[in-house]
Specification:
0% helix; mainly beta; 18 strands; 214 residues; four-stranded antiparallel sheet
Length: 214
């Protein structure tokens, strides 16, 4: 794994992070820029790296289901709360598992597995995102079976469903909250070029636009 610096006019190689044995499917950098998450297929799974020291950090013990060699990590995002000093990682897999790890310990170098569950019908999780407003954090996912799901998460207990809807034709490739009081969700289609706006309270499609031919 390589990473680059833009301190100068041209990018240059700054270092290597070595450890994965398989192709890397996804990368996510924490909001403070100190930590990198990298996901690959199977037992190699998800790894976390300290970018300042360029070393791998310990990861939580995983259940056999999560370490399935046929189940790749497909997407990841860091959940950041302004009032919190600890970062939280959320990632999804090809067999529909959603996992949440939270920093712990005095040096914040350890992670604790807070959530590990299969969602919906167990189809591939294509995308994840979050929104933190006030004391309420929401997590949204899109899966290959055209389903979009939203939960609330309090960083202590399980995910609590807000809504789950199935789109008629669109496979969600990316989802994003619109960061307003309505907390509507934008869903970007994988093949059809459609952008759906889902109402934040119940997931009803309130608008559909075309991004252009795919």
């Amino acid at each position: 794994m390589l990473f680059l610096s833009n301190d100068c006019k041209e990018y240059r190689l700054e270092g290597r992070l070595v450890g994965h044995k398989n192709a890397i499917n996804c990368l996510a950098v924490s909001h403070n820029g100190n930590t990198l998450a990298s996901g690959v297929p199977g037992s190699d799974g998800m790894r976390i790296w300290d970018l300042k020291r360029r070393v791998q950090l310990p990861t939580p013990r995983q259940t056999p289901a999560i370490q399935n060699p046929a189940d790749p990590v497909t997407c990841a995002c860091w959940i950041t709360r302004q009032e919190a000093t600890r970062e939280t990682l959320c990632y999804g897999t090809g067999l529909g598992f959603i996992c949440i790890w939270q920093q712990q310990g005095q040096g914040l170098e350890d992670f604790n597995a807070k959530v590990s569950r299969r969602i919906g019908t167990g189809k591939e999780i294509m995308c994840l995102t979050y929104d933190h407003t006030g004391d309420d954090t929401r997590i949204a996912s899109g899966t290959r079976d055209k389903r979009v799901q939203v939960w609330t998460y309090d960083f202590k207990g399980p995910l609590v469903p807000v809504f789950s809807i199935e789109l008629s034709t669109t496979i969600p490739r990316s989802v994003n909250f619109n960061r307003t009081a309505s907390r509507n969700l934008l869903v970007f289609g994988m093949y059809d070029g459609e952008i759906h706006t889902l109402r934040g309270s119940d997931g009803v499609v309130i608008a559909t636009n075309k991004a252009g031919p795919m």
